[in-house]
């Protein structure tokens, strides 16, 4: 379970996130909706440990954020995490390599996962 407890983040005099708390249980998906400047990206940056909250805590299954814990969390920002000049296969292999996966296995499993996740298009596009 992801537990966000009373987190606050300020940038100078501006409070981007103010005393925010919520839980996300195993199997749930979280989306945060709001206007520009509402603190959505800042919240996710704190969850991903890119930023530290000024107050409060964030834990996963009772553990403070660390590299092992962060390997269990996925995050796709509004700006897209994909590269337009790379094919689906190139992107999958790039991210697989970053995470230490066997590239031959990732390449062989790509059609299976594209089908399972209903990814439209050809792996070469």
Write the layout of secondary structure elements.
Blueprint: E1 2-11, E2 14-24, H1 40-47, E3 55-60, E4 63-64, H2 67-70, H3 88-98, H4 103-116
Antiparallel strand pairs: 1-2, 1-3, 3-4
Helix pairs in contact: 3-4
Family: Belongs to the ABC transporter superfamily.
Protein name: Putative ABC transporter ATP-binding protein YbhF
GO molecular function: ATP binding; ATP hydrolysis activity
Walk me through the structure:
- The protein has a 4-stranded antiparallel beta sheet with strand order 2-1-3-4, covered by helices on one side.
- It has helices at residues 40-47, 67-70, 88-98, 103-116, and strands spanning 2-11, 14-24, 55-60, 63-64.
- With 125 residues, the chain is α+β, with helices and mostly antiparallel strands.
- It starts with a strand and ends in a 9-residue tail after the last helix.
- The relative contact order is 0.14.
- The chain has 2 domains: 2-70, Rossmann fold, CATH 3.40.50.300; 82-125, no CATH class.
- A hairpin with a 2-residue loop joins strand 1 (2-11) and strand 2.
- Helices cover 30% and strands 23% of the residues.
- It has 4 helices and 4 strands.
Condensed summary:
InterPro entries: ABC_transporter-like_ATP-bd, ABC_transporter_ATP-binding, P-loop_NTPase. This protein is an alpha+beta fold. It has helices spanning 40-47, 67-70, 88-98, 103-116, and strands at residues 2-11, 14-24, 55-60, 63-64.
Mean pLDDT: 87
Count of discrete structural domains: 2
Number of helices: 4
> Low-confidence runs (pLDDT<50, min 5 residues)?
none
- Biggest sheet: strand arrangement: 2-1-3-4
Radius of gyration, in angstroms, nearest whole number: 17 Å
CATH level 1 class label of the largest domain: Alpha Beta
- For the secondary structure, the number of strands is 4
What pattern of helices and strands is seen along the backbone? Answer: EEHEEHHH
Protein name: Putative ABC transporter ATP-binding protein YbhF
Organism: Limosilactobacillus mucosae (Lactobacillus mucosae)
Keywords: ATP-binding, Nucleotide-binding, Transport
InterPro entries: ABC_transporter-like_ATP-bd, ABC_transporter_ATP-binding, P-loop_NTPase
